[in-house]
Amino acid sequence: MQPTQSPLDQLSDIHLPGAVSWWPLAPGWWALLALLVIAVIVFFVWRHKTKQNNYRTLALQQLDSIYANFQQSEDAATFLHEVSVLLRRTALTAYPKTFKASMKGQAWLDWLDSVCLANKKNTQPLFNSPCGEQLLTASYQKNPSVDAAALYNLCRYWLAQHRNHRQKLPSTKTTTDTAEAKHV
Hints:
This protein is an all-alpha fold and 184 residues long. The protein has helices at residues 27-52, 54-73, 76-94, 105-114, 117-121, 134-137, 148-161, 175-183. Helices cover 58% and strands 0% of the residues. Helix 2 packs antiparallel against helix 3, helix 2 (54-73) packs antiparallel against helix 7 (148-161) and helix 3 runs parallel beside helix 7 (148-161). Residues 169-184 have low confidence and may be disordered.
């Protein structure tokens, strides 16, 4: 006699599904990966701009230090000398190939005005004014009287607004140059 088989004994074993593959990624992982790539790109662009303008930050800090020293000592000749040296060092850093450190007098003031982008929008000269001309004249006087606050603000503005050799300067043509070019 044969034992009777139950219908449950006739069933096959349970077949488990295969292991879940990590590829292809779910849409959420693709979005996370895209955000990560964007974050890395933004970080490197930010770092490049920060390194590009690091000299500007250091120059502004140095100018603050020079002005604080002047307020304590009231030595105008030293203040003018240190400000002039700081502006020249900044110009050499911003324009290492084109700036000539031997530039003097009115040409020096003209150059300072020419590289300031904000001055291109404003027709008033920054350094070709009585305040900026203190850099040329007051340092040769025995007891110079200098408007240190105005000169400090002017230099601070220039340090913050000038464009370096990596940044595009606007066209230097004046309206008379373009008018002459149209007539030719």
